[in-house]
């Protein structure tokens, strides 16, 4: 499945790698991605930070709180930076429970107490949960399946399955399991990018404007038992982002008349 999508993605990815990522240098490219990814991933969960707000906070830290933004939003974004940096610095690690728990801990370290005072950052939930119009399953049964998900993901990568397909399937099932009290979406998107970066693929950044399609694709897993919609969304979002940045590169290289 997804042979057509994989072929199209790989054509764009090779062009993007040569013309954008490699030309920027690893450190600059990663910082650029961190700001974009953090802004959109947190915005999906309701954070009002813009990309410019996120860049300002990344550069100046909590000494500069953007106008009109709450301290809680600032702390959420700062936690996301720390989780992202940890993820990037551990790309040689296996996808296992200690890694998952540490990324979750960093993602919610300074905000969880406001949202769930009795919860512990980085520890699995101790009660059943609901969010929006979704009632999640029995938390004990779902958490018990986390090790199997991690092992199956590593096995799929070792068997040569395409990293973007694996990242999408992992993400869909991780959100289905919903193992933590808070931060499951941000943690899951970080872990999907851990899978991609470890395979030398560009980060996947789900734009906040795609939130409705993204949420619906996750709901299809619960309602219809299929992750095809989510895999298709991952391919569509990944290609559109790379194509847009390639177009920017071409446009911003054209000669401009100054006089």
Task: Explain how this protein is built.
With 259 residues, the chain is mostly helical. It contains twelve helices and two strands; from the N terminus they run ααααααββαααααα. It has helices spanning 3-24, 26-44, 51-60, 71-89, 97-108, 112-115, 139-143, 146-158, 163-177, 184-198, 211-224, 228-251; strands at residues 130-131, 134-135. A two-stranded antiparallel ribbon has the order 1-2. Helix 1 crosses helix 2, helix 9 (163-177) packs across helix 11 and helix 9 crosses helix 12. The longest helix is centred in the C-terminal third of the chain and has 24 residues, at 228-251. It is globular.
Secondary-structure blueprint of this entry?
Elements: H1 3-24, H2 26-44, H3 51-60, H4 71-89, H5 97-108, H6 112-115, E1 130-131, E2 134-135, H7 139-143, H8 146-158, H9 163-177, H10 184-198, H11 211-224, H12 228-251
Antiparallel strand pairs: 1-2
Helix pairs in contact: 1-2, 1-12, 2-3, 2-4, 4-5, 4-10, 5-10, 8-9, 9-10, 9-11, 9-12, 11-12
* Biggest beta sheet summary: 2 strands, antiparallel
Helix fraction by DSSP (H/I, runs of at least 4): 55-70%
For the largest sheet, list the strands in their spatial order: 1-2
Order of helices and strands: HHHHHHEEHHHHHH
Unreliable sequence segments: none
Total count of helical runs of at least 4 residues: 12
Beta-strand percentage range: under 5%
Shape descriptor reads globular
